[in-house]
Specification:
Blueprint: H1 2-25, E1 27-35, E2 38-46, E3 51-68, E4 72-89, E5 96-115, E6 118-120, E7 123-125, H2 127-130, E8 133-141, E9 144-151, E10 158-169, E11 173-178, H3 188-208, E12 213-224
Antiparallel strand pairs: 1-2, 1-12, 2-3, 3-4, 4-5, 5-8, 5-9, 6-7, 8-11, 9-10, 10-12
Length: 225
């Protein structure tokens, strides 16, 4: 009985020591980051030498661009925001990791188009009567799969540098309307104008879909606890 008790105590001490060592190996990393989806924060929990979970939110970045079709000059203000939740695999038990998971992007452009000329059925319409085109161009929205790779100093406590690159698929949608609303009329000219607007939407969508994926690149400074 004494031998069994001694063996039980030794086993309990071994299990307790293993649990303590495992708990000490777990680390939490908090980072301030900026990149192609905005500025924000990154939180990572490394629960194993080679495995971890990370979450990120970025927002607050926008830029302007212009584009020209046969009849319209477009100006667009693009807004970026994204949330991400991924499983991270550290193949060498160091800082390099491979990442896969889900991203919730909100990448959208507010579009304003100024007509230079407009022809319907071979007849040129006065552009001052048309007004301007207004609308939105959504580049990526909703839950999208994400894959990437990067470096995070989550295997040692203290400050570190963070970097990650990845991609998400785009899901382009374009919606346009005129400022004067002539396309809403119930007459042949309005129907022709609606058809022309749909063609403009398709042209903008085809241009945006030349990039089937959106690049996600992020840099930051981290602290591992």
């Amino acid at each position: 009985m004494k031998r069994m008790s001694t063996s039980g105590i030794i086993a309990a001490l071994c299990i307790f020591g293993s649990v303590q060592a495992y708990a000490q190996d777990q680390r939490v990393t908090l980072g301030a980051v900026a990149g192609t989806t905005g500025i924000g924060a990154d939180l990572a929990w490394r629960f194993h030498d080679r495995l971890g979970i990370s979450a990120r939110y970025t927002d607050g970045v926008e830029w302007s661009d212009d584009y020209r079709t046969d009849y319209i000059d477009y100006d667009g203000d693009v807004n970026f925001a994204a949330s991400k939740l991924t499983l991270d695999y550290y193949p060498f038990a160091g800082g390099f990791f491979l990442s896969a998971g889900l991203m919730l992007p909100d990448i959208e452009a507010d579009v304003v188009g100024t007509p230079r000329a407009l022809q319907l059925n071979g007849q040129e319409l006065p552009v001052d009567q048309l007004g301007t085109l207004h609308g939105t161009a959504t580049i990526a929205d909703g839950v999208q799969p994400y894959v990437g790779m990067g470096w995070r100093k989550s295997h040692r406590s203290g400050f570190g540098v963070f970097a990650e690159v990845g991609v998400i698929p785009t899901d382009v949608e374009v919606s346009l309307s005129t400022s004067e609303g002539y396309e809403n009329g119930n007459n042949p000219a309005s129907a022709q104008l609606r058809q022309w607007i749909r063609e403009e939407e398709r042209e903008l969508k085809d241009e945006a879909e030349k990039w089937p994926v959106y690049p996600v690149a992020t840099l930051g400074v981290t602290y591992t606890f």
